[in-house]
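Let us work through a complete example step by step.
Step 1: write down the sequence.
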Amino acid sequence: MSRRMPRWEEIKPLVKIRPPGLGPEARLAAAADIWDLRKIAKRRTPRAPFDYTDGAAEEEITLRRSRQAYRSIQFNPSVLRDVSEVDASTSLLGTTTSLPLALAPTGFTRMMQHEGEVAVARAAERAGIIYALSTLGTTSPEDVAEAAPNLNRWFQLYLFNDRDMGRELLRRAKDSGYSTVILTVDAAIAGARLRDVRNGLTIPPSLTLKTLFDMALHPSWWFNLLTSEPLEFATFKNFDGTVAELITTMFDPTLNWADVAWLREHWDGPIVVKGIQSVDDARRAADHGADAVIVSNHGGRQLDRAPTTFELLPHVVDAVADRIEVYVDGGIMDGADVVAAVAQGATAAFAGRAYLYALMAGGEHGVDRALQMFSAGITRTMQLLGVTSIKELDRSHISS
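Step 2: predict the structure and record it as tokens.
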């Protein structure tokens, strides 16, 4: 075969070199999945707040098991189905949501990235899904409601030693249009989050020699932190110390099932109990008037070696799903995970770390990007399974 030099008119259509873009949208453009967003987040965020998001309790066994549970399943597709139209919407406590996905409550969100809860709420509003604001949030319930007025807002409640504070939080949530309260029940004391101990994490971050050195490596993060509103809790007086010290000082270790009845007396909307890790406790939650439960081990951040929620989920569903709705969290990192959770019996899956990685990677644009990934992944997985509606998913679609 003879050789020749290529002509420019033959090469020109192949040249796709573009000048590098600026801003978060350009930074996120090449991210293909949540793990890519995590890599960007790790580069842009100081170690202590990144590890607070990324880490878990003790040896992080529960965290690894949670992720492995989703990786280990097999999907069982049906072919030759018309999947040109797919409906991924569902209903949570009587309200339609565009996806069987909700954004879980996370504390100290403005510590990860200065836009914080407002960015997350606006992205959730655009996506048509639920966002739950944490008691330990760094934006007030009122400010989140103002930023995302059409969002289906849920409020997550920790019960403190001071029950008057709990009543006041419930009043503020009701007055600000929050439809549902999530009572978290697996954090009566603090788990041993060893990364935080080793990093010396405090809320707000302390200016030590270590953090001053970190400023040189992450100047934009520190600039945004120091030039925006002070990082403090939005639902109670500021606390200066570690997360473990806060929980030990303020949380009520006497929390028990009678407190679910107490909550029912002070809240006339739906109640979700989060932190269910056994079938018996799921039954108790239903018996005490909960409208839904979240099968959750706190993202592996409390008791290491806790039950793997994806594996526990079908047993809880079989026990109580005829009485209350059942949700799940822990290890949800893409749309396929959400589809697997629904096939396992969950009404919806809650994601936390995934959107925090996105927030750290690109603020509000990052959360938008993550939710686009989730939506595309849910739709694609359903189509490849031969499923056109969330209601069609069941355990026949997955196997271990």
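Step 3: interpret the result. The chain has one domain: 31-399.
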